[in-house]
């Protein structure tokens, strides 16, 4: 394979990964916007909650919705699903975990009467996935004890308005909320331009983003919050994290809510900047980095980063490893971060 073909393939794959992640963000904020502004019998709770089963293990749904009836829904968003049945079954088996009763709901006792399972599946995968799910439910390959509703979603350009929209519609099953069923049956249409402006600081889901996605967000938004000048500046991972937590607000105010960003994502992004010459690790203090923000990048910053990282991958040039002494414990909840005046963010 020629270098040009290899580079083109690498760039296409990375662009596709970034686009898939961003589409998931658009779907999430689209659901939030629609329910916040149009629903009376159900509400968007969060995209970042923590739920626990009786056995103690954690459940992490992509989106949580609660109904005024005292019921709720755990939602799983799939941007793409694998073609081979074995991999598809493994990917879909996650919704089995949502079939058990869990705590963590936005109620006084953190419980609801019962809950539904909503699967949001991309239009390109929908028919194949529904066919397989029906088959696997019948033969017992997948066991789901809750009410299952599957919705199809896609991003399209509206032929009427010419605007880019997210289209969400119910294609299989129902929820326990008549209002939500009606909305999904009639199609939820999300104006992408509107929600991008209204929710400009909602850019991350719980899932780890592609490296280039985080790098772009830090370069365009967080670093501009850290300096008003177009020049190099020196920072630590923790200093970047503090600003990022203030910028990317949590999805909700639920007790124990986590911030959108993670320390490990930022560390990997800074390592990426160092690898492509947009940052340098300090020789005198390996915990600090000089961000070369004065560099004039003529092309789109995301395209620049993707091409630079692909070139690095193809050349397989060994890079100087970062000295990382961060703790191995997970990042603390936002409430702990605030309570401790952000002194400990590892």
Task: Walk me through this protein's architecture.
- This protein has 346 residues and is of the alpha+beta class.
- The chain has 2 domains: 23-198; 211-339, Orthogonal Bundle (Arc Repressor Mutant, subunit A), CATH 1.10.10.
- Helix content is 39%, strand content 19%.
- The protein contains 10 helices and 13 strands.
- It has helices spanning 3-38, 85-92, 126-139, 178-186, 192-198, 211-226, 237-247, 263-275, 301-315, 334-339; strands at 42-46, 51-53, 58-59, 63-67, 72-78, 102-103, 115-122, 148-157, 164-172, 188-191, 233-236, 279-281, 288-291.
- Helix 6 (211-226) crosses helix 7 (237-247), helix 6 (211-226) packs across helix 8 (263-275) and helix 6 crosses helix 9 (301-315).
- The protein is globular, with a radius of gyration of 22 Å.
- Residues 323-346 have low confidence and may be disordered.
List descriptors.
3-stranded antiparallel sheet, 346 residues, 2 domains, alpha+beta, Arc Repressor Mutant, subunit A, disordered C terminus, 7-stranded mixed sheet
Annotate the secondary structure layout.
Layout: H1 3-38, E1 42-46, E2 51-53, E3 58-59, E4 63-67, E5 72-78, H2 85-92, E6 102-103, E7 115-122, H3 126-139, E8 148-157, E9 164-172, H4 178-186, E10 188-191, H5 192-198, H6 211-226, E11 233-236, H7 237-247, H8 263-275, E12 279-281, E13 288-291, H9 301-315, H10 334-339
Parallel strand pairs: 5-7, 7-8
Antiparallel strand pairs: 1-4, 2-3, 2-6, 4-5, 8-9, 9-10, 11-13, 12-13
Helix pairs in contact: 1-9, 2-3, 6-7, 6-8, 6-9, 7-8
């Amino acid at each position: 394979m020629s270098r040009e073909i290899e580079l083109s393939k690498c760039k296409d794959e990375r662009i596709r990964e970034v686009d898939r992640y961003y589409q998931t963000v658009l779907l999430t904020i689209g659901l939030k916007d629609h329910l916040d502004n149009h629903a009376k019998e159900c509400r968007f709770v969060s995209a970042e909650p923590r739920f626990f089963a009786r056995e103690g293990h954690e459940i992490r749904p992509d989106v949580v919705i609660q109904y005024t009836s005292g019921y709720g829904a755990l939602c799983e968003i799939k941007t793409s699903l694998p073609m081979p049945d074995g991999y598809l079954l493994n990917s879909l088996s996650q919704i089995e975990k949502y079939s058990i009763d869990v705590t963590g709901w936005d109620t006084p006792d953190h419980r609801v009467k019962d809950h539904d399972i909503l699967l949001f599946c991309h239009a390109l995968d929908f028919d194949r996935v529904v066919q397989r799910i029906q088959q696997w439910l019948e033969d017992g390959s997948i066991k789901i004890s809750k009410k299952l509703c599957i919705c199809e979603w896609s991003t399209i350009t509206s032929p009427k308005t010419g605007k880019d929209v997210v289209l969400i519609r119910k294609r299989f099953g129902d929820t326990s909320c008549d209002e939500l069923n009606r909305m999904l049956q009639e199609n939820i249409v999300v104006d992408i331009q509107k929600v991008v402006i209204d929710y400009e600081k909602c850019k991350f889901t719980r899932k780890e983003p592609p490296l280039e996605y985080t790098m772009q967000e830090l370069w365009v938004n967080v670093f501009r919050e850290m300096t008003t000048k177009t020049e190099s500046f020196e920072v630590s991972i923790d200093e970047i994290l503090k600003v990022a937590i203030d910028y990317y607000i949590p999805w909700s105010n639920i007790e124990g809510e986590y911030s959108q960003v993670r320390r490990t994502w930022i560390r990997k992004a800074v390592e990426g900047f160092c690898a492509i010459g947009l940052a340098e690790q300090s020789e005198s203090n390996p915990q600090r980095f000089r961000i070369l923000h004065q560099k004039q990048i003529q092309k789109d910053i995301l395209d620049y980063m993707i091409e630079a990282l692909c070139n690095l991958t193809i050349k397989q040039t060994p890079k100087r490893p970062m000295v990382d002494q961060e703790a191995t414990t997970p990042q603390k909840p936002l409430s702990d971060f605030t309570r401790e005046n952000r002194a400990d963010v590892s």
